Amino acid sequence: MRSAKASHSLPILVVVAIITTGCSSMVTGAPVPANGLRQDVADSDFEIVGSTDSEIDKTARNALADINDYWSQTFPELYDGDFEPLTGGYYSIDPENFDPADYPDDIGCLDGDPENVANNAFYCFPQSDGGGDNVVYDRTLLESLAADYGRFLPALVMAHEFGHAIQGREPPPSDRSIVFETQADCYAGAWTGWVAEDNAKHFNIRVPELDDVVRGYLLLRDEPGAAADDDRAHGSYFDRVSAFQEGFDTGAQACRDNYDDERLFTLAEFTGNDTGNESYENAVEISERALESFWESAFDEVGQQSFIAPELVAFDGDAPDCGGDDVERDINFCAEDNTVAFDESDLTEVVAEDIGDFAVTTAISLPYALAARNAVDQSIRGPEAISAAVCATGWFAAQFYLGNLDDLAQATISPGDIDEAVIFLIEYGSRREILPEVGLSGFQLVDVFRQGFVNGGADCGIFGG
């Protein structure tokens, strides 16, 4: 938010990698292991050249077996004809312990140098010399991801690369790297949704366990300020998580149909002297002006009575009473005196430092949206109200991002700001002192935010829509 004051150089049409510098009804009941692997089935014997008996290669084999099953079923539903398996094979490589004798000489896109896949995983399109398409991965990278985020994230890496294999058979109507990459994220999300519906042989995962998966995507985003038209662009944190969630929610058909040059991406370059963050004091001031402008316009557009903006009340530690009741939340809307209160020492100053200025805006927007619900006699307590506030925060963020707020010519969103909203919801949204009644995981909160951002207020139910 602001006021006015590579790992390798292989081209996108040859190799598509997951790392940014290189390239329905859900199962409930007893928890499954957080790594997503079923414990009651044998490991797959799916062939991966160079693979070992390590846990990470077992994970890759199980994932690729399930992913092939998914696409053998799904591809004919989306496109004419059966899915044609990859003809160039799959390869597990440790770049620091590479024996050429264990591998063929013509692994596409590797060019005989294991460093070309270091800290990476990629899909290589069929080669001009007749070599088939393949998937190659650095197993030490997958081991690191599994250690930090669980073994489902390496499976998701495989699903992303397989999304590129689908593009090798049915490419999207765009040659932009960011379209290719986010469509592959969407395909990975569609596979994950299929897994969550208990369809996969080797994997299973519940929605709350996807929070760590979404956290892992933060490592895989392009850094704020990168260019969306760069020939290696993968997308912002929001772009990538949003694509994954779209596939998860609606399936592979949405991935096929919704990825072209018209798609909105939030990855953008910095301009001028913009460094991406305002001071804390400016962030609060801009948030207040932006939220008031947004909600006044929203009420005007639907012909509602004039919106009376709530007063912002900052506090440290002990929240002000509301109608005689003690408040034990870090953010709160009080209908009795039309105030939005926020804890500076325990929340907004902390997230400004740890995440960024738009995390402050996101935190304040949540109770502010409840003020809008209260103004039209909608409930301000319970899961429905809180979900509506999260959705409306996404709607507000989109209008701010698009520059559609009146009287804010001197304040605009900076690259990375929408990512900060995602981080806030993942890391703070499920805490009792933030959104105590919502009953949603961080992944689900981000999905509700995404729906408001993409679809607008009609999905949020503020005005009874």
Structural write-up:
By secondary structure, this protein is α/β, with parallel strands linked by helices. It is 43% helix and 7% strand. It is built from 13 helices and nine strands. It is elongated. Residues 3-16 and 18-34 have low confidence and may be disordered.
- β-strand amount: 5-15%
Q: Nearest-angstrom radius of gyration? A: 23 Å
Assembly classification: single chain
Low-confidence stretches: 3-16, 18-34
**Main beta sheet:** 4 strands, mixed
Strand order of the largest sheet: 2-4-5-3
Task: Please work out how many helical segments DSSP would assign.
Answer: 13
Category by helix and strand content: alpha/beta
Shape call = elongated
User: In sequence order, what are the helices and strands, one letter per element?
Assistant: EEHEEEHHHHHHHEEEHHHEHH
Number of domains: 2
- Strand runs, count: 9
How far the N terminus sits from the C terminus, by CA atoms, comes to 30 Å
Helix content: 40-55%
Arithmetic mean of pLDDT: 89
List keywords for this structure.
465 residues; alpha/beta; 4-stranded mixed beta sheet; 13 helices; 9 strands
Indicate the topology:
Elements: E1 2-3, E2 15-17, H1 55-78, E3 90-93, E4 121-124, E5 134-138, H2 139-149, H3 152-169, H4 177-196, H5 210-220, H6 237-250, H7 252-257, H8 280-301, E6 311-315, E7 331-334, E8 339-343, H9 344-354, H10 357-375, H11 383-401, E9 411-412, H12 417-428, H13 442-455
Parallel strand pairs: 3-5, 6-8
Antiparallel strand pairs: 1-9, 2-4, 4-5, 7-8
Helix pairs in contact: 1-3, 2-3, 3-4, 4-6, 8-10, 9-10, 10-11, 10-12, 11-13, 12-13
